[in-house]
Amino acid sequence: MPEEPAVAADDDASSRPRGPYAKGLARRQQILDRAIEVFARRGSAGTSLRSIAQEIGVSHAALSHYFSSRESLLVEVYREAERQQVEAEPHGLDASPVDIMTASARRNHAVPGLVQLYSTLVAAALEAGHPDATAFATERFAAVRADLVQRVERGQASGRIRDDVDAESVASLVIAASDGLQTQWMLDESVPQSESLDLLARLLEPHPRRGGKA
């Protein structure tokens, strides 16, 4: 068996992007971070790529270099904002689907502009001619639903969630409730968003039954 080549101590460092490519990645990240601040404050409605560039503080040419369209920029801004939120406040494996959505609702109250951005992207995804938004919404719903299904199944196995309900149906219902309540809250802040999610959590709790499953 041939001997494996020795690995240099700085192999990891040598594999990291360097030079113009690394600078380009860093510049793209700076633009995303600045755009998140702008959109979190006032949303994205009615803004062209040129006006976004002006508010972020970069040239229109620079923004167009990293993002092919306004829609592709909005998608990447939301994805990065969500990634940063999850990184800052990760969810444990035992967190229930409703716990996750409740925590998300609490965070979103502080960044209504990003909630509006999300709603804009989902609405665009339902129309023809918006491939970036359609891909974003389709992939995101599928990923969130798959994660919630696993959480429901773990909750059922541990006795924390009733076992007479279908895990995928529960996951889809939780997403629908969360997004629907979020839309209502954007229109009327008096909507009992957290309380409604708490009610859904209680409805999913196991309850004493006679004779096994219903």
TrEMBL record:
Q: Which residues bind DNA?
A: 48-67
| Keyword Ribonucleoprotein carried by entry | no
Does the keyword field hold NAD?
no
Gene3D superfamilies in the cross-refs: Tetracycline Repressor, domain 2
User: According to the UniProt record, where is the region Disordered?
Assistant: 1-25
Short name of one Pfam family for this protein?
A: TetR_N
Matching entries from InterPro entries are given as: BetI_C, Homeodomain-like_sf, HTH-type_TetR-like_transc_reg, HTH_TetR, Tet_transcr_reg_TetR-rel_C_sf
- Domain HTH tetR-type positions: 25-85
Which stretch is the leader sequence?
none
Q: Which UniProt keywords apply?
A: DNA-binding, Repressor, Transcription, Transcription regulation
Taxonomic superkingdom: Bacteria
PANTHER family reported in the protein's UniProt record: HTH-TYPE TRANSCRIPTIONAL REGULATOR BETI, HTH-TYPE TRANSCRIPTIONAL REGULATOR RUTR
Protein name as catalogued: TetR/AcrR family transcriptional regulator
